[in-house]
Known about the structure:
This protein is mainly α. It has helices at residues 3-32, 37-73, 82-103, 105-112, 118-131, 134-150, 155-179, 191-217, 234-263, 272-306, 310-337, 339-344, 350-365, 367-382, 387-406, 412-442, 448-474, 486-510, 514-527.
Amino acid sequence: MNLARASSLIAAGTLVSRMTGLVRTIVLVAAISSVGASADAFYVANQLPNTVLTLISTGLLTGVIVPRVVAVSAQADGGRIFLPKLITAGAAILLLTTAVALALAPALVAVMASGYDGATRDLTVAFAYWCLPQIFFYGMFALIGESLNARRMFTPYAWAPVINNIVSIAGFGLFIVLFGFHRTEVGWWTPSSIALVGGTATLGIIAQTVVLAIAWRRSGIPLRPDFRWRGVGFGSMGSLATWTFGMVVVTLLAGLVQVNVMSAASGENASVAVWGNAWLIYMVPYSLIVLSIGTPYFTRIAEHAAAGRGDDVRADISAAIRILGLFVVISAGALIAAAAPASRIFTSSAGDALLAAPVLVAFLVGLVPMAVLFIIQRTFYAYGDTRTPFFFTLAQGVLVVVLTLLAVMVPKEFLTATVASVQTFCGILELLLAIWLLRRKIGPLGIRKAVTSLAVFVGAAIPAAFAGWGIYLWSGADQGWMLDNLFFGAVGTALICSVAGAIYLGILAGLRTPELTSAITLVRGRFGRR
């Protein structure tokens, strides 16, 4: 499967997944709101397994397993001996991890949200018992999905989350039918209402994992338990995983500090639930662009690195950054201009949207650097190097912790946006360190052309974003129709982004930007054959 076809299939699945995910969030916000102790309690509980997924997919899986699966898939048996053993070992570890997490649920909540009062903490623990089983299913979903990606079967992993969102929309919708809207009172919750919300979240993860298990059978690799692990190379993988485990610890500790600091703002101000929902908006362009285009590039970089083709690796790095940059720069600019109406999509009122908008803007400023970091970090993984990423992640994590602890001095109404700004600032420094370390490892990266292209993209995006901002001001800004309800918020966001995008493309076309031609070719490479 070529890059154009792979990227478009992932992009299509990711687009549908993110759009249905936004609908899921809208229904959830309608049920329990986004600002308030109940929403924060559910967010913290549901974030426990979500954190595990993020750490697994960006650490052990991406850094250790994917390059190994790429290698064994090129062998004569196509991985038929190794892969069932890998899936079995992963399932055993995940079952143990899930059991331990369930036993420690009260302690985990106490660590994640030490600032909650007794009633809010009890509600969070009750949600956690329903959400923590997601650890096993999230882990299996990531393990099977990344293995399919490494074998160039990209479609199932991109489309399976749609099933999760459909199940969640139905479950949260049923909650509204049975219990009503905006259940923000901590003392209102009953075992049945907790079970419906928490159980729905977990059932959706189970559903998407079952879809991947069905897709796996089409790969021709048997999906059956195989405990004969001796002599298949798990030992060498374990040594690589040691460093990714260190990355897990660093990231987890930094995240714990962030959640605990933000929990002090819970109640009337933007807090952890707003943080999570703003992150969902941020992840729409990140997933749609960075993951859909960057994932096939990572597979190709891993293949070239395994074959010792250094020049091809450098060419892939430069090409990936330039293509990603073309789309990511305007996505960040347009969404910054539309931050308030975009935030209105996942908030209950115009006032809540204005509280959430600065958090979203803080995340979006880091969208371009994080897209570049995606490629740089995975180049280390392609060379089987998980040690170096540990050190630049450690540097970023330490800085996040220090600056986040200092953020407690700002007023509560600005606290969550400040923590998000800290995350972005530290991510930019992490990128600069990662580039320097990769250059020391493989020599000149040849990214001068990519940097020049990024500068052109930013230059084109600035007037385009200001034009989008002008549309928001024309609508009445904070008092305008775009903040009246979530529907108008979505319409306003689409209008602002459309205007900004059209102007951006017009400027690039006028400049005869070569990456624009490459992007058009990328799209036509997939859809031109239909």
